[in-house]
Amino acid sequence: MKKIITLLCLLFLSVTIWGQTYDVSIPVMSPEAASLGRFGAYPISYYTGTPDISIPLYQLNVHNLEIPITLQYDASGFIPNKDSGKVGHDWVLMAGGVITRSVNSVPDELWTNFGERPNYGVHGHWYAIKDLNRKLNEDSVRTLKYITTSAAKGIDFETTPDMFSFNFGKHRGQFFIAHDGTPKVISDGNYRIDLTNFAIQHMGQFTVDSSISITTDDGTKYTFGGSPESLEISLRLRLVEGEVDDLMEDTYNGVINAFYLTSIETPDGEKVEFIYKTYEKQTSQYVDDDNIVKNCYYADGANTIMNYPDNFWSGSGMTLKRRYTFTKVAYLSEICSSAGTVTFNYMTKEYPFCDTRKHFWNQKTLRLDNILVTNNNGTIVKGIKLYHSYFVANDNTSYRMFLTDILCGKEKYSFTYTDQKNLPRPETRGIDLRGYYNGYDNNRSLLTSKYVYNPDQVDFSHRQPDFNCASKAMLKRITYPTGGYTEFTFENHQYGTRMHRVFTSHDIVNDRVSGMVGGLRIKEIRNVPGEVRTFTYETESPETKKTISSGVFSDLKTYAILAHFEHIGLGINAWFISEASNVVHANSFSESEIVYSRVTETHGTGNGKTVYDYSTYLDHPDLPTLGSGTYAYYKQTALTNDQKNLLRYMLAYTSQRIKRGKLQSLTEYAEGNTLPKRKTTYTYTVKGNMDAQAVYAAEVRMLIVSQYGICNSQAFYYYPYQLTREVVEEYSGSQCLTRQTDYVYNDHNKQLKEVRTIGSDGVVHRTEYSYPADNMGETACAAMVGRFMVAPVIYEKQYAGNALLKTRHNKYALFQNTFYALSSVEEAYGNGPYHTLVTFHDYDKRRNLLSFTERGKPTEVFLWGYGYQYPVIRMVNASLDAVRHHAGAATLDVLADEPMPMGKDTLLADRLAAAFPSAQITTYEYNPLVGMTAMKNLRGLRHTYNYDVWGRLQELYVDGKRVQELIYNHTHTASALSASFGSSASSYDQGTQTFSMNVSGGSDVYDYKWELKDSNGKRVASSTGNTLTYTFKEAGSYTLTCTVKDLITQEEITKSRSFTINKFQVKFSNISDSSFPSTGDASTRATINCQKPTTIEFRMEYRVKAASPTTHFECRIGNYFHSGSGRGKKDFTLTLPQGKTNVSLDLFNIYAESMVELYIVKVTAEGSQVGSPNFLEVAF
Known about the structure:
11 helices, PKD_dom, PKD domain-containing protein, Ig-like_fold, mainly beta, 47% strand, PKD_dom_sf
């Protein structure tokens, strides 16, 4: 019997695939979004064999906020179909933060108009909850009961939530939306997700503003997204060569891949804003010339009628035409704060990544050129310049951009890479099953060339990994300003254990077989000068006791996927799909298929080493089913065993990734010792019931027409999996000292509730913690919980055995009627009364501490300045109330708010010293965002700190005497700045002149300041551009000065030169002539330009032979006219007006050699003189 089987040979695929009937775009992420999402989904560690390679560029500190700006390198291997992004191939800018989203089937917020094409066929998960109120019971989804209970209304929505990954500052995690509309978070931290402004989207319209907010457990709110400027959108349209010419007409909505951080709001009202590049073409909504990343690829697939289980394709499954994707990216432009501003400046890329000769969107995107940091006075305090180079692919049309150097001030970092020549075209089919380059550019298809009903017997020999190809264009060396460097050596992933899906059942087994997997792992990191770190990936086989690779490969092949969404009865939809593409980096923050149970890091050349053991797929394999009643066949009674096997192979497994990648033990070996010096073992436990902490999804996973199919549920777990025990064994000879620490966690948050330590002596030491949610009877605690300030410890109790030793109580109160902060710390011994250790009297509006009193010590007062950024006065032995009364609260607020004190702090300090003679007063001065420049005790010494132009501490003075000097021996720096004027002429004519500078060296990011002065020293012109243009109307001497400043290195050169401007040149200009031999006519035209009304003496000489009555000459100068013939001369004087006057000399009806000459003899006008040429003639 003939049956339709959709076969998808797609081990490597990591994108959501849509059916050919509904031609919806593949949601392809930019490299930045995909990498940032991966960094948020799981930490970079030895577990995946991936080193953490990052370059810290700057950290903006705004009160209690730290905003790091770094570059992160993706060292996983060379993927051909990966755009170079804004920074360079495999580099990502991390500044602010992002929420990335992996779409599972249908975008959550999608509202589908079923009458439109293309569409997804069903509504999204969030739309069904928010707008349709289709809130399902999780157990009804798990047991598939929702299929029958919801059938009356029609199941026109998906149940599978998208996965969101967040990454900002020190915060990492993931979340998804439960069927009741609440977000569920996977993270070790406490986060509150607000989806109020997560907008519903319609595919037939432009993307509307959409944002998601995350509040951390200190009450700080981070908002991501908003207007499309801050969103990355995979545009809906998918172009195939020769089918569609115009992107603009058909591009409306798409899938939001990423929500970039747009603001941070602290509990005290401090706000940091992240501004993104706006669009020049406002009429085109968010589509602009330089913000669309174009990518091309091949999509191979088959939707084939075949005799089951005959082993053949009825079609080749190969496409001949390239397809294109378009992703609208976001460019961070500024980070604005009360402390200062960070500006990101971009340039248009010199070459494209994707072939622009074709007619689809031929624009070039932007590259990050430099970053400038300015303080709140507008002064540049830090400059960073990025340099790039390009390497062309073997198609001679596609270019990859590489980051080659970074200039941080004067300090230079350089990057070299492995072989960058003969790189493949982006859309090559020469990729392994994980998408890394394998050199088989002549592959005709991404699909297997042969299919049998058992997926283990397919032929993928053309999709195997190749180390030489996967290691192309990889980072090889980083050279530092000191001249030292770090070198990286990589090797192919290898495994010794394979997690394998059994075709005849739904079970997963582990095979002790070895093999290679696509991509790279770190082998060696060499620091010069410094040590060499070597990494080996080996463990002992439990069965043979032999050494094998510690790599564990999750080889859960999927070759047939049929799903979502065509009507099959009961109101259920299913959609047949078959497609394979080489767009691999999209959705790439899913868990790595290759991980390592043991990694050994060796330091140096000896046997000193550290061994890391991790939990892997071997310890926590994915779950094929969730128990009885969680999967069902469609038309089960008609199924053969072979058909059941095929259908079970399509079950959607439940991931246990929360439990994987945990450090199980860490064993340290000293140099020269084969026995460990220390071993630390870690135990983790699920808190609560696993199944009760899951969101369930159930879709029709496979359908063979309407003949047979399968549906199963899967769980998206979010349970806390926490470290509950740590055992440290210290070895000294034959002795071993053991210390065990147990951890218990709070029921209201993920904070520690109890830490219990048992030493080798058997004595138990215990510390208990409680938080605001545990103390709701206290007014402040209840209010703090309402503001999600759930992390502060309120009570801390210490025990020895069962005896209470000490209790510490941290009390909070409302300040400035705005925020809660620590008001006092109390302590009690045993069951005794509390004694106050410290009282915090008040804070300013930015949570800066103004005064505190520690038990037994005098009260201290702090006065702030520089826009509430730094303390400028410290007083010991004075009360805040007294200081406010004397100085005035308003005065103190003005001082705190000023960007620069401008001496007000010094005057105030002197007044306070006189008013409070018993107080110890210290004053502080700063260079904002650089550091402290002076500290003086009014009754003691003054310390002065000098910085170089790059913000590095250079000298320390005490009362004017230098006591310390720091010298930086950096050999790898930028070349020295040099500049010279473009012209060295000593004089110029009056009129418009443009002056320029020849500048070289430094960073190429220059600031210009021009100034032009006359002989009296009066400034007549200035400019901040790279040229100065001025129209001279007066003769005399002038001085031109240009100061060139390198904004990155902060070097500065000033050049001056003097020159004279000649008197105004009265002369003939714009001279042209013509001759007509056939008629005996000739003509000369010119103009005379006068700066002001000018009297001019002319002389005219002529020789015109009168061969006929009509032979003659004519002379016209403005309104003046003279004509004649014969031989003679004529002197005459005219007063010409200001501006241009037309002059003409004409000969008419000439039969013999003739000529007329006109001379400017003398000029009478102040500031003017006879110029050159002063002679004009017409001849025949």
